[in-house]
Write a structure and sequence with these properties.
Blueprint lengths: L1 E5 L3 H12 L4 E5 L23 E4 L9 E4 L1 H12 L7 H35 L6 H22 L11 H10 L12 H11 L2 H11 L6 E2 L5 E5 L2 E4 L4
Parallel strand pairs: 1-2
Antiparallel strand pairs: 1-3, 3-4, 5-6, 6-7
Helix pairs in contact: 1-2, 1-5, 1-7, 3-4, 3-5, 4-6, 5-6
């Protein structure tokens, strides 16, 4: 059994998608961010950074004691190696997958988070500040990342060729927030996103997550709101 300490964020949904795709037995443990439970090692064992996701594999391949793993990219690699799935043993295919996984971890996720932060969250903290520059900066970088992905998907059905942990890593972030230019400029990304969203495992991951209370609420428009560093940030859901 694998325990996934869960909240409804893009980084955590990567892992729940992988668990569904790999048909692993797992338990979702809701973590209430509004109460700071993600920072309490007594509630989330192994949460050395105070962030989610964290998993505990009670049956690791070496037969030893349960192992706790943090960082979504490391978790995806671990699960792929555990199940020998969605990460090819072929040198070139594996390298391509890992490149795009690290691209997501180093770019797509952090930049998407910053763009969302300055667009949705910062103005609520201090509406007297002009956030035009940081908002434009990160939305321009966000669009650039979408263009990179659009180019890659023009010649590949999935990001690294075959469906892999790279797709699982990128999908929740691409679903998080569209670029300002509009989706019509990214037909290949949209085609890919629809294909991934149609996968039964992806649908199951989101359906199971939606039923858990992790300290999130709804704003007046029905959009999901969640506490981030003790405050509220807007998230565009799938």
């Amino acid at each position: 059994m694998i325990k996934l300490y869960f909240c409804t964020s893009p980084n955590v949904y990567k892992v729940s998608i992988a668990l569904e795709e790999m048909e692993l037995k797992y338990q979702l443990i809701a973590v209430d961010l509004s109460k700071g439970h993600h920072r309490d090692p007594a509630i989330v064992p192994g949460a050395k950074t105070g962030k989610l996701p964290v998993i505990i594999d009670e049956n690791p391949a070496d037969g030893g004691a349960p192992i706790a793993i943090f960082e979504s990219g490391a978790i995806l690699q671990y699960l792929a190696e555990k199940t020998a799935s969605f990460l090819s043993a072929n040198l070139r295919q594996r390298t391509a997958t890992m490149q795009w996984l690290f691209w997501q971890m180093g770019g797509l996720g952090p930049i998407g988070g910053q763009a969302g932060h300055f667009h949705f969250y910062a103005p609520k903290v201090d509406p007297t500040v002009d956030y035009t520059y940081p908002s434009n900066r990160y939305f321009n970088m966000w669009a650039s990342l979408w263009r990179v992905l659009e180019s890659q998907l023009a010649t590949h059905e999935y990001i690294a060729g075959d469906y892999s942990i790279a797709d699982m890593a990128c999908f929740p972030w691409i679903s998080y927030m569209p670029p300002r230019e509009g989706l019509e400029h990214f037909p290949n990304v949209c085609r890919w996103r629809e294909a991934v969203a149609a996968r039964p495992a992806v649908q199951a991951a989101y359906q199971k997550g939606a039923h858990l209370d992790t300290g999130y609420g709804q704003n007046e428009k029905g959009a999901t709101m969640f506490p981030w560093e003790g405050l509220l940030q807007h998230v565009i859901t799938v």
